[in-house]
Fold:
Amino acid sequence: MTTAINCHNSRLMDDCIQPSCEEAPGNFYLCRTVGLFTGDMRRCRKWVSRQNVMIQLLDWMLRGMAQVMFVNNPVSGLLITAGLFLQNPWWALNSLLGTLVSTASAIFLGQNREAISAGLYGYNGALVGMLMAVFSARGNWYWWLLLPNMFMSMLCPVVSSALSTVASKWDLPIFTLPFNILVCLHMAATAANHPYFPQVYSSPATHKNKTEAFHSQLFLSVPVGVGQVYGCDSPWTGGVILLGLLLSSPTICLHAMLGSAAGVLTGLALAAPLRDIYSGLWGYNSALSCIAVGGVFYVITWQTHLLAVICALFSAYMTSASSRLMSVLALPACTWPFCLSTLIFLLFSSEIPAICRLPLSVVSYPEENLRNRRRLKASQAVRRSEQGSGQEEEEEKAPPKENTGTDYQSVEERGSV
Structure:
């Protein structure tokens, strides 16, 4: 019965949403063509599943490159990869290698194939490879760096699986915690004076703030903050990444900019060095937190929009505190602030129905989450109406009851039904 109701409701929803070819065939085919490259490209994923292993692996790698920003779209991953090459080809090469090794390691270890095909075992490897190249003091094209890059990327599925076992008890994602653990482990093991793999030591900035070109630099710091998710400080790279996000989900693109802007404003409020603000170091954690809360793990409502901005501001405060604490150990803050602040907001409970956290099993991109929620409400309404009509038919078929002279009993009976 439930299956029949759901199928009937889905047909009603499809008839309401999809335009007929007779009414507007040109607009219909245009929207259908654009829809092939937006969202999570589900049709492309089904087509890839029937191809050879090399094409599948390429699709999984591109999705892994985009999953850093909660995007499951290979075209978005291709644009993001192009942006990384625009910043630094050596860094982009290390990022692709990390994604490849991490994905292949997950296959070898027998991890969930559906999660692998969605890129969920590749994004931590992408960040590990990228940031190991960024923090290397040997500069570009130091080929020996590929060895620790491959080893750490190989460990990503192991750490991810271990953390998922613990986080699944609360139905929580692991985000980029494997990346944080492995990169900090590598940097702590090698340090700045290592003969083969020295690391760049970044002490807290002590220079005075400069005010020239304040407004233009402040404006560019928003896309730069988005690019710093991958360790890039070029506004062009940030712009290409935003374009990739816009292709998959306008909501994710909007929240990435909102989160980065919230981090910039928090940095100004805390009198942070302008060099750090201009380089995007105050925006990337806030951007990730705003995306996660603003539609990926919560259904889109104006309440969750506000909650996402609050989470972005909290993540920026966490960035300031984490940077100071990690600098004592000569380690970068990485995305620890994003992970900690967002996990707190995902554990947040509310009696407001509009603030609804989704189970991990149904999480998709924001627009699809909203459509699924509407379909669920519509199916529940159809189910209630059919149950109500069924009860009315049973009452009509039932023999009439004798009147005992009081109406209270009949009222109670109707209320219990």
Notes: The two ends are 20 Å apart (CA to CA). The chain has 19 helices and no strands. Confidence is low (pLDDT under 50) at residues 1-23, 203-212, 402-417. The longest helix spans residues 366-397.
